[in-house]
């Protein structure tokens, strides 16, 4: 399996961590949008073989690290969709804005409080077991959690997120090369 990615793409973290947790060997290849021949021009791209590729980082994460408790599968899908359509776009906007407008800060704060509430009661997003939802959300929040200024600005009132993020970071499977 190969992951085609560009530099500083936090969505690639999702795939590397999921593969590591599942014990799957992955070859990482730097690419540009022009290098991706079939399908949408989106990176990262997971190429399983000549016939199967994933253009959605969340779908690829779930393929690599599927949820084993099918009773939680719907919740996991819902959280992956929430991360992709709500959290990731807001975090990306915050990271790329020279000056973050107050409405964007407020939107991010609201989303962070959603995650904070989930983690106040449980060790992981869906309860007591690590899932692809944790991997996706953690990867999206990584630039906020591990930048001193951003952490202070956005996560000061989110101790559960900080604790959860640090626990995941210290896990052996998260230590990607």
UniProtKB/TrEMBL annotation:
Residues 69-177 form the GST C-terminal domain. One of its GO terms (cellular component) is nucleus. InterPro entries: EF-GSTs (IPR050802), Glutathione-S-Trfase_C-like (IPR010987), Glutathione-S-Trfase_C_sf (IPR036282), GST_C (IPR004046), MARS_N (IPR041598). GO terms for biological process: translational elongation. PANTHER family: ELONGATION FACTOR 1-GAMMA. This is GST C-terminal domain-containing protein. It comes from Euphydryas editha. The lineage of its organism: Eukaryota, Metazoa, Ecdysozoa, Arthropoda, Hexapoda.
């Amino acid at each position: 399996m190969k992951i085609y990615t560009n530099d500083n793409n936090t969505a690639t973290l999702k795939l590397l961590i999921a593969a590591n947790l599942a014990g799957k060997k992955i070859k990482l290849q730097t690419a540009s949008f022009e290098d991706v021949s079939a399908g949408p021009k989106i990176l990262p791209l997971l190429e399983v073989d000549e016939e199967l590729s994933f253009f959605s980082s969340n779908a690829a994460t779930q393929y690599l690290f599927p949820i084993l408790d099918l009773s939680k599968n719907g919740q996991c899908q819902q959280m992956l969709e929430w991360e992709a359509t709500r959290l990731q776009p807001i975090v990306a906007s915050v990271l790329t804005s020279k000056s973050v407008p107050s409405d964007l800060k407020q939107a991010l704060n609201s989303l962070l409080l959603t995650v904070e509430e989930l983690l106040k009661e449980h060790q992981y997003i869906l309860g007591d077991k690590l899932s692809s939802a944790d991997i996706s959300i953690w990867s999206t929040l990584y630039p906020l959690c591990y930048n001193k200024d951003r952490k202070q600005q956005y996560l000061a009132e989110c101790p559960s997120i900080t604790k959860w993020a640090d626990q995941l970071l210290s896990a052996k499977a998260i230590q990607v090369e």
